[in-house]
Specification:
Elements (H helix, E strand, L loop, with lengths): L6 H16 L3 E5 L6 H12 L2 E4 H9 L3 H8 L1 H17 L3 E4 L8 H10 E7 L2 H8 L13 H16 L4 E4 L5 H17 L19
Parallel strand pairs: 1-3, 1-4, 2-3, 4-5
Helix pairs in contact: 1-9, 2-9, 3-5, 4-5, 5-6, 7-8
The structure holds shikimate-3-phosphate (S3P).
Length: 212
């Protein structure tokens, strides 16, 4: 019996094509604190039927202590070394959808691992949105400064040229989460399957162009 193409079934086939094209590669979300990496990552993983992992939570589990405690007891360099090790291990166990902490992509070794074993998405957010979101939680050691807004501005300036090296960029803004997830899915499909969202529903060969 011919299949009826409804929005739900086209979406499912697009999601399945992405998962097939990924193979063992993961989808890694990078970007500033408060950009929505965990929130979007969790929803994206459900769409792609992949496991979701949060690098910060995995670092805390491996260390047996919270991130503020790791910073306070051992210092940032120790945290960064652990972060790089944990992300390397998680990427070896792909495919997963992995949300990384805001500083992880700054390390060249981690960037090159992500390049080799994943497709990266930079969730780009404006400073005012970041500030509004990070104010809700006081567990970010880097923002325990006299002037957190100035710190966010400085980090954005330092980090954006590096985040820009991600394979894909999605603008994270105040719209329903599902809209951002849809944009991630469309971008992943275009990148991996060589087809834009507009061609969904047509017969396209996703495997032929899935060279990455
Ligand atoms: C950091 C971001 C945090 C966490 C740590 C350092 C950063 O993760 O890894 O506090 O350097 O930007 P989120 O980006 O998930 O908040």
């Amino acid at each position: 019996m011919p299949e009826t193409v409804s929005p739900a079934s086209t979406s499912t086939s697009q999601d399945a094509e992405i998962a097939a094209a990924l193979g063992t590669r993961s989808v890694v979300l990078v970007g500033m604190m408060g950009a929505g990496k965990s929130t979007i990552g969790r929803r994206l993983s459900a769409r792609l039927r992949l496991q979701f992992l949060d690098a910060d939570a995995e670092i805390e589990a491996a260390a047996g202590m919270s991130i503020p405690d790791i910073f306070e007891t051992h210092g940032e360099p120790h945290f960064r070394d652990g972060e790089a090790r944990v992300i390397a291990r998680l990427l070896d166990g792909g495919p997963v959808v992995l949300a990384t902490g805001g500083g992880a992509f700054m390390r060249e070794e981690t960037r090159s691992r992500i390049r080799g074993k994943a497709v990266s998405i930079w969730l780009k957010a404006d400073a005012d949105i970041i500030m509004r979101r990070v104010k809700r939680r006081a567990d970010r050691p880097l923002l325990q400064t006299e002037d957190p807004a100035a710190t966010v501005d400085r980090l954005i300036e330092q980090r954006e040229p590096v985040y820009r090296q991600a394979d894909l960029t999605i603008w994270s803004r105040d719209v329903p989460h599902e809209k951002i997830v849809d944009e991630c899915v469309d971008a992943l499909h275009g990148f991996l399957c060589g087809a834009s969202a507009a061609s969904v529903g047509q017969t396209t060969s996703s495997t032929m162009d899935a060279t990455r």
